């Protein structure tokens, strides 16, 4: 029987929720964080509905603040007793030329997409060491491909890709596996997008959930340290 527990930041919608649902289907319990306590509890209640036992707990945590993540980890451990998987998914984007991007927007992007992942692994590394667990960051193809008006977002994702690869070298001797997933266009609510039929060509959140499940099933001797994921049939330009 699968008794694993996953800690997922930004787990109430989009990629985070897609991964949570896929893991629950495999018998894994999930700890979901969101900046909104109401959203976190609402999604946890939905995931727990009709289940014989509690499979999800929703917690408030702004990943920009280490104390908030540390508190969520503590509460999650009190609820489920262990953390085997960590998916650092929380992220946001502001886009514009260097003249347009404000200092506030820059810090929001860097502090969430990059420092937030640093805070997440710092808060969970002890639990992962104990469980010999798996840490996954959700980067982006923007972590290797730069584009106009992407200074803040590119910087955060280039940094995240490098951070996670270095982290993999730091933690493998502790028995912790580390990977980064770098999706292209995903059908999510990112930056106010409303997913609809026009997004059918994009990667779907459940696709990334399936990918994560498959990664966890690989033989322990094998590590996909960096995975780029693209829509297979994007519209012709």
Describe the structure.
By secondary structure, the chain is of the alpha/beta class. It has one domain (5-229): NAD(P)-binding Rossmann-like Domain (Rossmann fold, 3-Layer(aba) Sandwich), CATH 3.40.50.720. Helices cover 43% and strands 15% of the residues. It is built from 6 helices and 7 strands; from the N terminus they run βαβαβαβαβαβαβ. Strands 3-2-1-4-5-6-7 form a 7-stranded parallel beta sheet, sandwiched between helices. The radius of gyration is 17 Å and the shape is globular. The mean pLDDT is 95. Belongs to the short-chain dehydrogenases/reductases (SDR) family.
Which helices and strands appear, and what pairs or packs with what?
Layout: E1 5-9, H1 14-25, E2 29-34, H2 37-48, E3 56-60, H3 66-80, E4 85-88, H4 103-131, E5 134-138, H5 151-171, E6 177-183, H6 205-217, E7 226-229
Parallel strand pairs: 1-2, 1-4, 2-3, 4-5, 5-6, 6-7
Helix pairs in contact: 1-6, 3-4, 4-5
Protein name: NADP-dependent 3-hydroxy acid dehydrogenase YdfG
Domain Ketoreductase: 4-187
InterPro entries: KR_dom (IPR057326), NAD(P)-bd_dom_sf (IPR036291), Sc_DH/Rdtase_CS (IPR020904), SDR (IPR050259), SDR_fam (IPR002347)
């Amino acid at each position: 029987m699968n008794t694993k527990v996953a800690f997922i930041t930004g787990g109430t919608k989009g990629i985070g929720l897609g991964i949570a649902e896929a893991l629950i289907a495999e018998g894994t319990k999930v700890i979901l964080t969101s900046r909104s306590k109401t959203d976190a509890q609402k999604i946890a209640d939905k995931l727990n509905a009709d289940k014989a036992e509690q499979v999800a707990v929703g917690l408030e945590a702004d990943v920009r603040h280490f104390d908030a993540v540390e508190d969520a980890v503590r509460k999650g451990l009190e609820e489920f007793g262990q953390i085997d998987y960590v998916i650092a998914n929380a992220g946001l984007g502001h886009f514009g030329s260097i003249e347009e991007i404000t200092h506030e927007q820059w810090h929001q992007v860097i502090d969430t997409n990059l420092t937030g992942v640093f805070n997440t692994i710092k808060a969970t590394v002890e639990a992962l060491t104990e469980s010999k667990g798996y840490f996954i960051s959700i980067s982006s193809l923007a972590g290797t491909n730069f584009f106009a008006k992407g200074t803040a977002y590119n910087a955060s994702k280039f940094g995240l890709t490098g951070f996670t690869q270095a982290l993999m070298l730091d933690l493998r001797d502790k028995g912790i596996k580390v990977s980064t997933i770098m999706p292209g266009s995903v059908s999510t609510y990112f930056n106010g997008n409303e997913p609809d039929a026009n997004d059918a060509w994009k990667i779907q959140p459940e696709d990334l959930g399936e990918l994560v499940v498959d990664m966890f099933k690989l033989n322990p001797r094998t590590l996909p340290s960096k995975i780029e994921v693209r829509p297979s049939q994007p519209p012709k330009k």
